[in-house]
Amino acid sequence: MSDKLSSLAEGFAIVPADNMDHLDRARSDIFKLTREVFKISEMNPASGFNNFHRHIESCTPGQFNSMRVELIKRITVEVDVSKLVFDAFEETITKLLGPDILAQRGCNLVLQPPGDPNPSELHRDAPANSPYEIVVWVPLVDCYKSKSMYILDVNATNTCLELLEKNPSDWDAFESHSKRLAHTPSVPYGSALIFFTGLLHGSEINQEAETRVSLNIRYKNLFSPSGLKNQLQFFKPLKISNLARLGASLELREHFR
Amino acid sequence: MIDGRLTSPQPEQHEFLQIKARKEGGEIVFYGAEEYRCFRDQPFVLNKLRRTPGVTDVVFFTFEQFCYGDKLNLKLMKEIILSGYGLHFAREDLSLNSLQDIVDNLPVFLAYFYACKQKNSHTHRELLQGLV
Q: What is the pLDDT of residues A131-145, one digit of tens each?
């Protein structure tokens, strides 16, 4: 793992998968369900996802949204996405969070066809999420320019938040200043953008000729403060260390007799 | 068992309880809530279960109902299980059917209890309340 990531000095880093097999498995399982829900005949996940917009040309926005919701429901039930992504980036995530790790239960899949007028608006996840979480943003296709997302580093985020604090009603000034300071990283399939939940980020209308398909999954240490999220509801345990089990058994013996 | 401390309205809690009961292959036969002076220890629920024939399990709206005291209310969890009832939490979609289930999940339960009790959580709430 690079020093840049291990220190998270800028609050984000792009890292290659430690194990591509798990990422390939996640992508092919998700693509299989996407083919079923959207009736896509294309067999190749990369070109199928990149050309996804061609298969929904006859859909109304309402129909597209219904199918997207159905797809996300099926993925949540049928594919253990957070485990597969964790397995793909295990070394990196474990170094950042330690041995006791919770993963988001649900799956956030983003399908952003070219010209889709509903990109993700400028925001940060914490607060109300825990500032001790990380977001693992995993493109299932090569993402670049407006097909990618934008993100502000720690210093730029703080600068923009100060501006907003001084002018809380001037969203336009805040947004345009934030976008001027933002990075738009190119993230190829096989890598992930990992970032601190306190960073401002969002996406633009996809002006490229291909659809963006990406996952975003949150991970946190079992014992870190939870923010306002109910961590039993939002997260599931992925890895519990022997030390945590020994500690819990001691508490059981000493405090709960 | 609904949670009278939450802003989540009772019909919403009933809906979640029904969904969890059906998922576990059961149905709801009665609802209950603790007197507000008893939220911390919930002394009502076990007595109610014991005097109601035909009940096999109890579904709480949230695990949070076991976190209102100074300590995680493991005592009540243990008593419910040892009395032969299955114990379920609707919002978290969790089920405990044996003491071993409690032991297996204990690190996660304790971490939840401590994470939620930490001042950080309250700071967030105050921060957000201050903004609206």
A: 999 999 999 999 999
Which residue ranges make up each domain of chain A?
Answer: 3-255
Q: Hey, are the CB atoms on B115 and A226 less than 8 Å from each other? A: yes
**Residue B101 to residue A20: CA distance in whole angstroms:** 34
Three-state DSSP string of B73-125: CHHHHHHHHHCCCEEEECCCCEEECCHHHHHHHHHHHHHHHHHHHCHHHHHHH
Nearest C-alpha in B relative to A255:
B71
Cα–Cα distance for residue pair A218/A101, rounded to 1 Å:
11
Q: Which residues of A152-182 are buried (b: 16+ CB within 10 A; e: fewer)?
A: bbbebbebbbeebeeeeeeeeebbebbbeeb
CATH superfamily of the domain spanning A3-255: q2cbj1_9rhob like domain (2.60.120.620)
Sign of CA pseudo-dihedral A8, A11, A13, A17 = positive
Asked whether A46 and A141 are in contact (CB, 8 A), the reply is yes
pTM (2 decimals)? Answer: 0.88
Residues of chain A in contact with residue B71, where contact means CB-CB under 8 angstroms, are: 255-256
Whether residue A2 is predicted with pLDDT greater than 80 in this model: the reply is no
3-state secondary structure of A244: helix
Interacting residues of A253 by C-beta distance below 8 A, sequence separation 6+: none
